[in-house]
Write a structure and sequence with these properties.
Elements (H helix, E strand, L loop, with lengths): L4 H5 L8 E8 L4 E8 L10 E7 L1 E6 L7 E6 L2 H17 L2 H36 L1
């Protein structure tokens, strides 16, 4: 029996090469899980895999809404189990320094993404301003 049955069910066979993962919500009814790997030099295997998980809709009583209930979306139980297994893997081989380094790298990437989006929006606004 595998040490990580959920990840194995997802097709992940080299759990020892996992360095970190990211999880984000995409809209109200879907989650995106990205798993990152440290591959050997010259490897043709991907450095990351992306998985998409749907969320289930559920009606919950709510006194503040007009209809008396509101629709909420629950995270997949399968995804929760996968994340628990990933946490075990990542915590096994990452020191606090490694975690800080990885988070700083993610912050740098986020800053680049925001900067790119800001420049793109500014140029769109300038072009619209010229047309008005």
């Amino acid at each position: 029996m595998s040490q990580f049955p959920i990840l194995e069910e997802m097709g992940i066979k080299r759990s020892n090469e996992i360095t970190h993962y990211s999880l984000r919500q995409d809209g109200k009814d879907r989650d995106i899980l990205k798993i990152y790997y440290k591959r050997k030099k010259g490897s043709v295997l991907p450095e990351r895999k992306t998985f998409k998980f749907g969320r289930s809709a559920k009606m919950v009583a709510d006194d503040t809404s007009k209809s008396g209930s509101v629709e909420v979306y629950e995270i997949s139980p399968f995804l929760l189990k996968a994340v628990a297994e990933l946490d075990k893997i990542v915590d096994q081989h990452q020191s606090d320094k490694d975690k800080i380094k990885m988070m700083l790298k993610r912050v740098d990437q986020l800053e680049k993404d925001v900067s790119f989006a800001t420049h793109e929006l500014r140029s769109l606004l300038k072009s619209l301003n010229r047309e008005v």
